[in-house]
Amino acid sequence: MKNVFLILFPFLLSFLIASDNGVFSVLSFNDAVSVSKIEGKPIFLEFRADWCHNCRNMDKTTFKDKGVLSELGRFIALQIDVDSLEGRRLAKQFNVRSVPAMFGIDSEGNIKLKKIGYQSAKDLIQSLENFQ
């Protein structure tokens, strides 16, 4: 039974990480941190809100761009709704004052990237490519 779990775990993990567009995960932040430590993958957070015009524009443009999607594939990517309970807690933890706000966090938990406001596909790709 243990061997079956070890074989199926990577497939289950991939399923949990992928969302409708294949990039943003449905994992909680705490689960993403755990997976990040295990896999050594960085975390990308996008703090957003449904009422945010720039957030909706990024959903329609930036996060549909193939280059952005390719770069985000290197990350455990999460969209954090600042109006949710977890989102409010995380926004306070990351000192988010406006949305959209994006953070890149390495597998050690260090913030290595912070972007506030609308990001075009070109600008976000450049930031993600420079992420160490």
Short description:
The protein has helices at residues 2-17, 29-39, 53-60, 66-72, 85-93, 121-129; strands spanning 43-48, 76-81, 101-105, 111-116.
Main attributes of the structure:
132 residues; Glutaredoxin; globular; 4-stranded mixed beta sheet; alpha+beta
How would you describe what is shown here?
There is one protein chain. The chain has 132 residues and is an alpha+beta fold. 45% of the residues lie in helices and 17% in strands. It has a 4-stranded mixed beta sheet with strand order 2-1-3-4. The longest helix is centred in the first third of the chain and has 16 residues, at 2-17. The chain is globular. The chain starts with a helix and ends with a helix.
How many structural units, i.e. domains?
Answer: 1
Looking at the structure, the CATH topology is Glutaredoxin
Strand/helix succession: HHEHHEHEEH
Main sheet summary: 4 strands, mixed
| CATH homologous superfamily identity | Glutaredoxin
**Discrete helix count:** 6
SS strand fraction: 15-25%
Distance between the termini: 38 Å
CATH class: Alpha Beta
Query: Count of DSSP E strands?
Result: 4
Q: Please state the average pLDDT score.
A: 88
What structural category do the secondary elements indicate? alpha+beta
Low-confidence stretches: 14-20
Helix content: 40-55%
Radius of gyration: 15 Å
Shape: globular
Give the strand order of the largest sheet, numbering strands 1, 2, ... along the chain: 2-1-3-4
CATH architecture assignment = 3-Layer(aba) Sandwich
